[in-house]
Design brief:
alpha/beta; six-stranded mixed sheet; 26 helices; elongated
Length: 648
């Protein structure tokens, strides 16, 4: 694990170049999702610095609250699922991050993203078992960090800065920041030489106080971590104004043992200079001027922290990359974190599946339900629904598509091989299947590529939320013209004229559907409000508006996914049909589809205790949950039934 610190420093430029050129499409998608909600960033050791960087970028670009947690805090203080949750880990092997992710997966936050450098790490393997997790793998070209996290911190921070800049319209700002960092990061650059000379007089004293502003906080945080982990000295950090609220008293009592290091950006230069001018003259000061925009300054402050660590080590005869780790330290690192409190579901005689199902449906914890004496009502409703579901033979299934058959992150790819195999098994048993989707011909093409042509006559597709229904083999369907019908023409024109929609949204017009899809970070609620504002202003009253996993769809009021169910009934007769979708909560576009008595959700579900339950295993959703349902079905002679004991 030990490696000379100089070797780590020699690879910083290569790491920065890699992070500036790496494919970040998946990371951008995850950042886009994160931008819709508050965020919690989780890290330990060096990754805690990256967590602080993520929080800084998130708040700066989105204006939404973000907070940093250690793995222990994340496990002990769970937040409601609407808070985006990110975990950062260079190696993906330590017991703390594994325990945190295991616990968080069961909470099923709306977004759980894991940024990791170890492709085959235990962390990556755990996340792959729960496909809804945004697993973002970026192995730094420098390989595994030594004792102190170095290149992974710079690499991950650069990747995140770049992704946020790209998603929030700051591409030009990023380009300028890259140029500023490249000037400094080269070995023996004028900037590094100036920093080393400025700080050289500080290290003869045992305590260093680091003053910083908002943009340089990342560097101060990492420097504190490095000083303590490598035992280089005592280090205190404070922003310029918080220093004035009592922290200055340390210098009054221990000034002869202390020095001051100031990170100064253009934004806080006046405040920094005024603060430093008031300090006693016998206390050594070093002023590191970090030029550029806030992104450049953040990265430069981190670079300064990494370099200063090496210079201090050299001054004290310590190699920060190869410390003499005591045996008790090794044992401390390997200690197991506390187990998450055993689920109270056990004491209530609930399986983990039932506990998850009730929590999803009720929207509150089991403890809360029990305290208000509502748990038994929900348990009874679950038993009633499941008994009805598992005692019924079905002659057909209607699926939603995006988020149900294919993951929304790969929605323009065909269904997985496993999904195709399960659908084929059902069709070969003589069962009829239909898909109700907001999309058009792309779904037909993907299903034709996935299912045997001999089975196509048993498959119906309801395009554009049921506006047009045709067999899978009909290559003329759907009508893909980009001209809306007469009833939607004026509304389509008004939507295109709305300034905010015109700037931020892709509008697709079809004969019986208008689709609005955000092209940048735009909360669903905002898009929903904008669409309804135009609808109200134009006096349009005969349309239906629903949300899908990626868009808002507007169709004539009489169009519904229920039409697909009705058409399938025409084939199979008046027999039960199973419906499965991911957006069963109003105003999701599966709300009507999943109102029937035999309806299963794989993600968002309605509050109705009679139907639309999500019975997937805890920690699973989307196509993975759909596969779980399909595998639980036995098919024979044109009928389906859930196997005895399944979904319990």
């Amino acid at each position: 694990m030990a490696r000379p610190y100089a070797i780590e420093m020699a690879k910083l430029f290569e790491t920065f170049e890699w992070a500036n050129e790496a494919d970040i499409e998946a990371l951008r998608h995850a950042v886009r999702t994160a931008g819709l909600s508050p965020l919690r960033a989780i890290g330990s050791g060096g990754s805690l610095t990256v967590a602080h960087a993520l929080v800084t970028f998130h708040q700066r670009h989105t204006g939404r609250m973000a907070a940093v947690s250690t793995p222990l805090e994340a496990v002990s203080e769970p937040l409601e699922p609407g808070v985006g949750t990110w975990l950062l880990s260079a190696g993906g092997t330590n017991v703390d991050v594994l325990a945190a992710v295991s616990a968080l997966i069961q909470v099923e936050p709306r977004q759980l993203a894991v940024l990791c450098g170890g492709e085959d790490s235990p962390l990556a393997k755990l996340c792959r078992a729960h496909s809804y997790v945004d697993l973002l793998i970026f192995p730094p070209p420098s390989g595994k960090d030594g004792f102190l996290a170095t290149n992974s911190i710079l690499g991950f921070t650069t990747l995140l800065a770049r992704a946020y800049a790209a998603e929030f319209g700051a591409t030009e700002t990023w380009k300028i920041a890259v140029a500023d960092v490249k000037k400094a990061i080269q070995e023996n650059s004028e900037c590094l030489t100036a920093w080393e000379q400025a700080t050289g007089s500080l290290w003869r004293r045992p305590t260093t106080i680091v003053l910083h502003g908002p943009s340089t906080r990342i560097g101060a945080i990492d420097l504190e971590s490095k000083f303590i982990e490598a035992a280089l000295g005592n280090l205190q950090i404070a922003d310029y104004r918080n220093f004035g609220h009592g922290r200055h008293h340390w210098l009054a009592k221990h000034g002869e043992l202390s020095s001051v290091l100031a990170f100064i950006s253009d934004d806080d230069r006046l405040l920094a200079e005024s603060t430093l001018a008031l300090l006693p003259p016998h206390i050594p000061q070093a002023r590191l001027y970090l030029p550029g925009n806030s992104t450049a300054v953040a990265l430069l402050s981190l670079l300064a922290a990494l370099k200063i660590t090496g210079w201090v080590g050299a001054a004290q005869g310590i190699d920060p990359g190869s410390p003499d780790v005591p045996e008790f330290g090794r044992k401390l690192y390997k200690l197991s974190p506390p187990h998450v409190a055993a689920s109270t579901a056990t004491s209530w005689r609930l399986s983990s599946r039932d506990a998850a199902a009730i929590t999803r449906k009720a929207g509150v914890s089991l403890t809360r339900l029990d305290s208000v004496r509502e748990l038994e009502r929900w348990r009874s409703a679950l038993d009633s629904f499941r008994n009805r579901l598992t005692s019924t033979w079905f002659t057909g299934i209607v699926f939603d598509y995006d988020g149900t058959i294919v993951d929304t992150r790969q929605r323009f790819q065909p269904p997985s091989t496993t999904m195709a195999e399960e659908l084929t098994r059902v069709l070969e048993a003589g069962v009829c299947v239909a898909f109700a989707t907001g999309r058009g011909a792309s779904v037909r093409r993907d299903l034709q590529a996935s299912l045997p042509s001999s089975l196509w006559d048993r498959v119906l597709i309801g395009y554009y939320n049921g506006a047009e229904i045709a067999p899978l083999g009909d290559d003329e369907a759907p009508d893909g013209r980009d001209v809306p019908c007469e009833r939607l023409t004026s509304l389509a024109k008004a939507l295109r004229a709305q300034p905010e929609l015109a700037h931020a949204v892709k509008q697709t017009d079809r004969p019986y559907q208008i689709t609005l899809e955000a092209m940048q970070v735009l909360p669903e609620s905002r898009l929903w409000d904008l669409a309804h504002q135009v609808i109200l202003i134009t006096g349009t009253t005969d349309v239906s508006v629903t949300r899908s996993s990626h868009s808002i769809d507007i169709v004539p009021a009489e169009i519904s996914k229920l039409t697909v169910v009705e058409r399938l009934h025409e084939r199979v007769g008046d027999t039960p049909i199973l419906t499965i979708g991911d957006r069963g909560r109003w105003p999701g576009n599966d709300f009507e589809l999943l109102r029937g008595p035999y309806s299963l959700g794989v993600d968002e579900i309605s509050v109705d205790p009679e139907t639309c339950w999500n019975l997937a295993q805890s920690g699973q959703r989307g196509p993975t949950a759909t596969l779980e349902y399909l595998r639980a079905l036995e098919a024979t002679a044109g009928r389906l039934r859930f196997c005895d004991g399944s979904l319990r």
